[in-house]
Write a structure and sequence with these properties.
Blueprint lengths: L1 H22 L2 H18 L2 H10 L6 H62 L2 H48 L1 H147 L3 H46 L14 H19 L18 H14 L1 H10 L33 H4 L8 H16 L6 E2 L2 E2 L5 E4 L3 E4 L7 E9 L7 E6 L7 E4 L11 E8 L7 E9 L2 E10 L5 E3 L3 E8 L4 E9 L5 E7 L8 H11 L6 H19 L8 H14 L25 E3 L4 E4 L3 E9 L5 E11 L7 E10 L3 E2 L4 E8 L4 E9 L5 E7 L7 E4 L2 E4 L4 E8 L5 H5 L3 E2 L4 E10 L6 E10 L3 E4 L2 E8 L4 E9 L5 E6 L5 E4 L4 E4 L4 E8 L6 E10 L4 E12 L2 E3 L3 E3 L3 E2 L4 E9 L13 E2 L10 E5 L7 E4 L2 E4 L4 E8 L5 H30 L5 H19 L3 H6 L5 H12 L4 E13 L13 E16 L3 E3 L7 E8 L4 E9 L5 E2 L1 E2 L8 E3 L5 E2 L4 E8 L6 E9 L4 E11 L3 E3 ...
Parallel strand pairs: 4-10, 12-19, 21-29, 31-38, 40-49, 41-49, 51-59, 61-68, 70-77
Antiparallel strand pairs: 1-2, 3-5, 5-8, 6-9, 7-8, 9-10, 11-13, 13-17, 14-16, 14-18, 15-17, 18-19, 20-22, 22-26, 23-25, 23-28, 24-26, 27-28, 28-29, 30-32, 32-36, 33-35, 33-37, 34-36, 37-38, 38-43, 39-42, 42-47, 44-46, 44-48, 45-47, 48-49, 50-52, 52-57, 53-56, 54-58, 55-57, 58-59, 60-62, 62-66, ...
């Protein structure tokens, strides 16, 4: 009863919600009647419309159609309202029946409660009476509520039924309208069928007519083909007859052409032979000329040296005579300057005379041109102006030649090679004299040489180049200073002084000194100090020393500085001012300055010259050196007891100026030097030029290092060898330390197994400075009784310092007490455990001794010796007890005695013996370890786990002890399990075990618990764990799916359900979905989403969905196995490496065959290189791995290979499914649902994969068929072989390809037997430039094979960099060339084959016959081939002529313009031909050539652009100026004046004056232009700017011409004027410019 009461209470709010929902339709019902009435009104007119249709059939108007559509809409709306209202009434009646059932149930419950109350009242059970009264009151209230609800529902039901009746009434009113609408719809359908039938009849008739027309056209086509065939046959027969006739004429023509070609070939060979002979002759001439020039240079150099020697001799002679040499040199220079000025003045006069003569000749030529008529004969006695001028010039030249010093012309020098005959030279000179006598005179003067200065060796060879002896050749000129140099002279006094001085020098400089009958013998001057010594110098500093020279002779003497030795001149400078005569005993000072530049010892002398003879002062420069020594060589300590310590001191002294590093070692120890670093440092630190020392150093030490590796480490160079090396280094002058060289010396001291009684103090190595000393203590600590001696040595880093040795001697006396077991090993000990042992002490003394046992201070809290004091009897033993209780503070307390890493304790114990200096010690060894077991992590958080799954987590159990321990997990809860062995086992020392903790919750709540692990010594280790149990609102029908074996690239499908079983929120009756202790999940639609792992072969559909309460959703899971890309990459790279190995092996074989006769060293080197190449090829770089795409050939081949060899694979995947509340359709836009990560379900998939049944065998098994780039309109065919590798026959089906696409399967096969192979033909025919791609599926019952078809249709296109397709080469000097470049860009994806064709070289252009260009009008001239070279070679050439342009690349072309004569109309056309048939571009080539460097452009054309076939002969030099003609230029100016009242702008034109850039040598670098008659032109209204100017090479300048009509201009007659335009460059050209101006008044 109580449960029923709770259910009724729970159902109460639900009923209230239902009543609220039932009241909503009333709003709709109120508005329905009004709309129905309106629709009924519209429908009432329908019968009248039908009657009018029967009487007169008219077409409905637009308004009637609209009314009909509104009527149909209202009818459908009324029907919809009727259905909704009917459904609502049925639902209300059902709720009313349910309400009545509840009321009946409540009445029954009241009756039962009343009966119970009567029974309890009779039993006088007041507690039950109270409870029953409360239940009765609750039932009464519920019954009252039910009565109220029933009343409301009855009212609603009545109102709904009345509304339904009204709707039915309206439907009855609209019944006629409904019928009429149905009839109209049926009539419309019948009309459509009738029209369709008529249309079908018309189409059938049209098709029959088209068929008849097709047959007629076919008949006509057949008839026309027959006629064309007959006509073609006749034409072929006629063509064969004509061909036979033309063949005869062709053979004759070919014979004549071959004969002509043979003649031309012979002429060409002859021409080439002549040119080769000329080149060889020129080469020989050039070599001979070089030899001549080389002799000229040697002769000039010898003359210069001779002049310098003469000048030095003159200077010495003047100084010897006591004269002023500087004054004499100044006079001589002034005299030479005057002579040079005179020569320059004479040359200037000659140049001016030459200009005057040339001007006279030009004027005479101009006069001759102006007066062309012949002159009357002159009388013989009268001379013309020309004759007078030539005679004057000849007289002047002859006079100068006679006044010149005697000289001989260059060809007449004796001893030369035979040259041209004198008669020929005279004849040439006489002929040249007729043209230019002045040039002959000047050139003959310029090559004159002083005959007296040429000896037998200085004669010059006659050049073999005949052009050197032409009159216009300029030979090498000798400077006037060398030709006109005169011997040094002077006055008579100067000559006398020079003679006396020379006589004195000849008599001798040294004189004997005799005083008082005694002749002085010995050194004339004494030096103080006697020896100049610069000691311990530094490079770069300056040192100065003064010495005093004392006259040691008997009388007056002189002293002169001679100099220093040659080896000291760069470093020593002596300042000495000669004091003049010095009496006996007098002195003078000499300052010697030393500036060292190298660190090297220097020795030499400073030489002086006295009147009695020469003497010298010794000089020495010494670098810094080390001078090391020990104060003693033997140290004797005497006798000491074992355990005592004695100290002696030894002193190391350095008396040199250079410090070094030292080290004290035992004499038996070796010192190995690390030469690797020092050798590297030497190569960069040595500053002197000679590298001999460095080479020897590295060689010797590399040998020693090799010997050291092979033999014992004690093999080192001997002291004698090192001394020799030091001496040799000093002799060669290559110091080590002075140059800052650091030799890194590493001392390696091997372990000494001998006794170590003698030791050195702390200072055993270091640096010792210059002029310093270091004291090193030597310590004697006797250990073993007896006499002890040892030897030590001192080694130095500076190898020039010898090793020093000293010896140490001492005597040790034994002690009476000892411990037989000095090391006590307690093995492995644990903390907080007691360990004991006994120590035994022996004595050899004959008396009792007192012993005191002492533990070190650090270990007194952990270790103890008992007793602490005792007495040992004579010749007996004593035992002491050792107790060791390690505590956890031992590592901190023990300090240095405990190693924290190894946990080893080494505790020194001390036994003090009375009357004994040295204590007795022993050591206690123990390994202290812990007993801890460590669980990691310290706490486990399983997180959120659903009741449908279990979570497994690994923990680590680590044994930090050095002993094995047993463990076990005890007291585990039911929902936790530990594996393996249920959490029990033994853990070894320092071992870490991995344990699995499995948690599976039973219901949704929060879990907090501990896992307890106990060890064998009853130590507990706890692990805190927490988790949250989750009950998700959805569940899966299967949590595990096992797929059947699926072949590669095939698909297997499985299904499951997602179930929503959450229907009630009552947690008392069943467990509701919730997360831990949170609120329960609401009842309603619930959404889910599967999260697939990346790169998995799994597909789930749908991934996202919504499940309503009590419903389930079907989910499809597909498995499609594929090969992993990493495995395919690996296989591809292995294939590449195998190919590389094969290629390298082949290359190695070929190389070995070629190099069989080569030395073995080269063969080994090549083999090593090949191995390196093979190793590099076998390991492809990571960059190639990244670049290998899935569409590459290697990738697809590897994929096919792996597919055929696939052996099967099994994978397991876990797919999470997240759950969220709500419907996916209710979200706004792309707003995601709030998925909770804790309500996650997991689906486990078992996926076995096997090999496919059908594979591709062609093209290494590629399934991607790439046709590549196919030109549009072409067709490509690929063959694909497929093989059935399954054990049974297979039926094949194919997917449908695009019928309008470019791909076609030509031979489909229906059945493929087992093990057989079938070839499929696929074609690709692109119609345009497009990238096509389709997939062809081959379907079998065991799987599907997909072939990817790819192809690209490409249209070949290129672009040219020339704008306008016109390439103007500009102006060029004739017989020179100029080049310009342009580019062609391949914009297509295919390589394009191209060829360049010039029309001038094309046979097609030659065969075409046209009218001559000079006969055709300008409009009719279509020929693009203009003027060509006379030599027959093409004036234009292009490189390259043919080739292939790669896709997307650009090709550079160079066009060269090489004219061989002057013309302004060079032109040609360049055609770019693609694939030998398609012309892509036409490029017009233009150019002009001139004989001279100037040109004028502009004006109106006055001639045709065609040259005459007649070659105009060139005039000779003599008549060139007479034949010069004025070149006309016509400039027409039109002054446009449309309005007479306003002034129009002036008419303008331009002329371009240019200067051509040339490689020829020319005197003028610019072109000057000028226009005369400017004033007359300005008077006529012309304005010319500029009228004159200059143009640089390679540039042009514009001359602007403008014209404005003057006031007196007559518009009916054009204005004409002319002016002369002169151009001056390498020649002079004159143009006559004709100006024609007129006024234009209309367009």
């Amino acid at each position: 009863m109580e449960e029923d009461d709770k259910k009724l209470l729970d159902d109460k709010p639900l009923m209230e919600d239902d009543t609220e929902e039932l009241e909503d339709p009333e709003v709709v019902l109120d508005c329905v009647p009004r709309e129905a009435e309106q629709k009924a009104g519209l429908g009432s007119s329908c019968p009248g419309i039908e009657q009018s249709k029967d009487k007169q059939k008219q077409r409905l108007t637009a308004q009637e159609k609209m009314q009909a559509s509104l009527l149909r809409r209202d009818l459908s709306h009324v029907d919809q309202l009727h259905e909704e209202k009917d459904l609502f009434i049925q639902k209300t009646r059902g709720e009313l029946r349910a309400c009545r059932r509840r009321m009946e149930l409540l009445v029954k419950q009241q009756e039962s409660v009343a009966a119970e109350m009567a029974a309890e009242r009779a039993a006088n059970n007041m507690a039950a009476m109270g409870r029953l009264e409360a239940a009765s009151q609750r039932l009464c209230s519920e019954l009252k509520n039910e009565w109220d609800l029933q009343a409301r529902m009855m009212a609603v039901l009545q109102q709904s039924e009345s509304t339904l009746w009204q709707i039915e009434v309206q439907e009855g009113q609209l019944e006629d309208a409904r019928k009429s609408a149905q009839e109209e719809a049926a009539a419309a359908r019948r009309g459509l069928q009738e029209r369709a039938a008529k249309q079908l009849d018309r189409e059938m008739g049209a098709s029959e007519k088209a068929e008849r027309n097709k047959l007629l056209r076919a008949r006509r086509c057949m008839h026309l083909q027959k006629e064309l065939g007959l006509r073609q046959q006749k034409l072929v027969e006629e063509a064969q007859k004509n061909h036979r006739k033309a063949l005869k004429f062709l053979k004759a023509s070919l014979g004549r052409i071959r004969e002509q070609e043979q003649k031309e070939e012979l002429e060409t060979r002859e021409h080439m032979r002549r040119r080769m002979d000329a080149v060889l002759a020129l080469k020989n001439s050039i070599s001979a000329n070089r030899e001549t020039l080389r002799k000229f240079q040697a002769w000039s150099q010898s003359k210069t040296e001779l002049a310098e020697q003469q000048a030095q001799a003159e200077k010495k002679a003047i100084l010897a005579q006591g004269g002023d040499a500087f004054k004499h040199l100044c006079h001589q220079r002034r005299r030479q300057e005057l002579e040079a000025q005179n020569r320059a003045f004479e040359e200037e006069q000659k140049r001016r005379k030459q200009e005057i003569v040339s001007r006279l000749l030009k004027e005479e030529a101009v006069e001759d041109r102006r007066r062309p008529r012949p002159e009357p004969p002159r009388p013989t006695g009268q001379r013309s102006l020309r004759d007078q001028t030539w005679s004057y010039v000849a007289t002047v030249c002859d006079g100068q030649s006679t006044e010149a010093p005697p000289c001989c012309p260059l060809p007449d020098v004796p001893g030369q090679r035979p040259g041209p005959a004198p008669e020929q030279i005279k004849e040439n000179r006489s002929r040249f004299y007729q043209s230019s006598l002045l040039l002959t005179a000047i050139s003959s003067e310029s090559v004159q040489v002083d005959g007296s200065s040429l000896s037998g060796e200085d004669t010059l060879a006659w050049p073999e180049i005949p052009g050197l002896w032409k009159e216009d050749y300029k030979p090498v000129q000798v400077s006037k200073d060398d030709v006109d140099r005169k011997p040094v002279g002077g006055t008579k006094m100067d000559k006398d002084i020079l003679a006396r001085t020379m006589q004195r020098l000849r008599s001798g400089v040294i004189h004997k000194q005799v005083a008082s009958g005694r002749e002085f013998r010995g050194c004339p001057f004494n030096s103080k100090p006697k020896f100049i010594h610069f000691k311990d110098f530094d490079v770069g500093k300056v040192y100065k020393k003064k010495i005093t020279l004392i006259n040691a002779t008997y009388t007056i003497n002189y002293c002169k500085l001679v100099g220093v030795d040659e080896g000291l001149q760069d470093f020593i400078h002596v300042d000495f001012d000669p004091p003049g005569p010095l009496s006996a005993g007098m002195s003078c000072e000499v300052l010697v300055t030393f500036k060292p530049m190298i660190n090297k010892d220097l020795e030499g002398n400073v030489s002086f010259l006295a009147q009695t003879g020469g003497f010298s002062v010794p000089l020495k420069c010494s670098t810094k050196k080390c001078s090391l020594s020990l104060d003693k060589e033997l140290i004797d300590f005497g006798s000491y007891t074992v355990g005592e310590t004695a100290i002696r001191t030894i002193t190391l002294t350095n008396t040199g100026g250079l410090g070094t590093k030292f080290r004290f070692l035992l004499a038996s120890e070796t010192c190995e030097m690390d030469t690797s670093q020092s050798a590297l440092k030497l190569s960069s630190i040595f500053t002197y030029e000679d590298k001999g020392f460095y080479d020897k150093f590295t060689t010797s030490f590399s040998e020693h290092q090799m010997e050291g590796n092979e033999s014992s480490p004690t093999d080192v160079p001997s002291q004698k060898e090192s001394g020799k090396l030091d001496v040799k280094e000093q002799e060669e002058g290559h110091p080590i330390e002075s140059e800052g060289v650091t030799l890194t010396t590493i001392m390696t001291i091997p372990a000494n197994e001998e006794q170590m009684e003698f030791s050195l103090g702390e200072t055993t190595e270091g640096d010792i400075g210059p002029f310093s000393s270091i004291k090193v203590p030597v310590i004697f600590t006797p250990i073993v009784p007896g006499t002890v001696q040892n030897s030590f040595k001192v080694v130095f880093k500076n190898q020039q310092c010898p090793t020093l040795y000293f010896k140490v001697i001492g005597v040790a006396i034994d002690v009476p007490v000892w411990v037989p077991k000095p090391n006590v090993d307690l093995k492995i000990c644990m903390y907080d455990r007691l360990y004991q042992d006994s120590i035994l002490v022996h004595t050899r003394s004959k008396a009792a001794l007192r012993l005191k046992f002492e533990v070190c201070k650090e270990l007194r809290g952990h270790m103890e010796l008992l007793p602490e004091t005792g007495y040992i009897q004579a010749l007996s033993s004593y035992s002491v007890q050792l107790k060791f209780l390690p505590r956890h503070s031992l590592p901190e307390d023990a300090g240095k005695y405990f190693d924290k890493e190894t946990r080893v304790l080494e505790a020194p114990m001390t036994i003090w013996v009375a009357d004994q200096i040295k204590p007795l010690g022993f050591t206690v060894h123990a390994v202290v370890t812990t007993s801890d077991l460590e669980l990691s992590p310290a706490g486990l958080d399983f997180g959120y786990c659903t009741i449908y799954e279990a979570i497994r987590t690994q923990i680590s159990l680590c044994n930090h002890s050095l002993l094995p321990q047993e463990f076990g997990f005890v007291g585990l809860p039911k929902f936790v399990d530990i594996q393996p062995n249920d959490g029990f086992g033994t853990i070894l020392p320092l071992e870490t075990l991995q344990l699995d903790v499995i948690f599976q919750p039973t219901k949704a709540k929060e879990y907090n618990f501990e896992l307890i692990c106990k060890s064998e010594i009853n130590r507990c280790f706890k692990l805190a764990c927490r988790a949250v149990g989750v009950h998700p609102p959805l569940e899966l029908s299967h949590y595990q799916i096992k797929f059947a074996a699926t072949s590669l690239y095939d698909t297997s499908v499985a299904t499951l359900y997602v179930i929503n079983s959450h229907l009630s929120m009552n947690s008392l009756t069943h467990s509701v979905p919730r997360i831990g202790s949170e609120d329960a999940f609401p009842v309603g639609p619930t959404s889910f989403e599967f999260l697939l792992p990346p790169d998995s072969p799994i597909t789930i559909s749908p991934l996202v969905g919504t499940v309503w309460p009590g419903k389930r959703c079907l989910v499809r899971v597909a498995f499609r196995p594929v090969l992993p890309s990493d495995l395919i990459h690996q296989e591809a790279f292995q294939a590449l490496s195998r190919k590389a190995e094969i290629k390298s092996s082949q290359k190695e074989t070929v190389t070995q065959r070629k190099d069989q006769r080569r030395p073995s060293f080269s063969m080994l080197r090549l083999q090593n290189q090949d191995r390196l190449l093979q190793a590099s090829a076998s390991q492809p770089p990571e960059v190639q791995k990244e670049d290998l795409a899935s569409s590459s050939q290697e990738y697809q081949s590897a994929q096919a290979s792996l597919t055929r060899s696939f052996q099967g694979k099994f994978d397991k995947f876990v797919v999470p499914c997240v759950v969220a509340s709500g419907d996916t359709k209710d979200r706004k836009g792309t707003e995601p649902l709030s998925f909770s990560p804790h309500n996650t379900l997991y689906l486990e998939l078992w996926c076995p994969a096997v090999a496919p049944s059908i594979v591709v065998t062609s093209d290494k098994g590629k399934t991607i068929i790439n046709f590549g780039d196919i030109a549009a309109g072409h067709r490509g065919i690929k063959k694909v072989s497929i093989q059935n590798i399954s054990p049974e026959d297979l039926d094949l089906e194919y997917s449908v390809l695009n019928p309008d696409g470019p791909f076609v399967l030509l031979n489909p096969t229906i059945r493929l037997p087992s093990g057989e192979t079938q070839v499929l033909d696929l074609s690709f025919s692109p119609r345009e430039s497009v990238l096509a791609q389709e997939t062809l599926d081959i379907i079998t019952k065991k799987g599907t094979l997909s072939l990817a078809l790819m192809g690209t249709g490409v249209a070949s296109t290129i672009t040219c960099s020339i704008e306008g397709d016109v390439l103007n080469m500009g102006y060029v000097i004739a017989r020179e060339s100029v080049s310009l470049g342009f580019k062609l860009q391949n914009n297509s994806l295919l390589p394009i084959k191209f060829s360049m064709q010039l029309d001038s070289l094309s046979s097609r252009s030659r065969d075409q016959h046209h009218l001559p260009q000079f006969l055709a009008s300008p409009d009719q001239r279509t020929e693009v081939v203009g003027t060509q070279n006379y030599s027959g070679q093409s004036v234009f050439s292009v490189v390259p002529v043919e080739g292939i342009m790669e896709p997307g690349k650009a090709q550079d072309f160079t066009v060269t313009f090489s004219p061989d004569h002057e013309s302004l109309y060079f032109s040609d056309r360049l055609q770019v031909v693609l694939f030998e048939k398609k012309v892509s571009h036409h490029i017009l080539l233009k150019g002009a050539a001139r004989e001279h460097m100037m040109f004028v452009e502009g004006g109106d054309p006055l001639d045709v652009p065609v040259e005459s076939l007649t070659v105009i002969p060139a005039f000779d030099l003599e008549h060139r100026e007479e034949a010069e003609e004025l070149k006309p230029i016509l400039v027409t100016l039109d002054y446009v004046q449309l309005d007479p009242d306003t002034q129009a702008p002036p008419a303008t034109r331009e002329l371009q004056v240019g200067c051509i850039r040339t490689t020829q040598l020319s005197a003028k670098k610019t072109v000057e232009f000028s226009m005369d008659n400017i004033a007359a032109l300005q008077h006529k209204g012309f304005t010319i700017e500029p009228s004159k100017g200059s143009v640089e090479r390679g540039q042009t300048k514009a001359i602007s011409i403008s014209w404005t009509p003057p006031i007196d201009f007559d518009p009916d007659h054009p204005l004409m004027a002319s002016a002369l335009l002169q151009l001056r460059g390498d020649v002079k050209e004159t143009y006559k410019v004709l100006f024609v101006a007129q006024v234009v008044t209309g367009p």
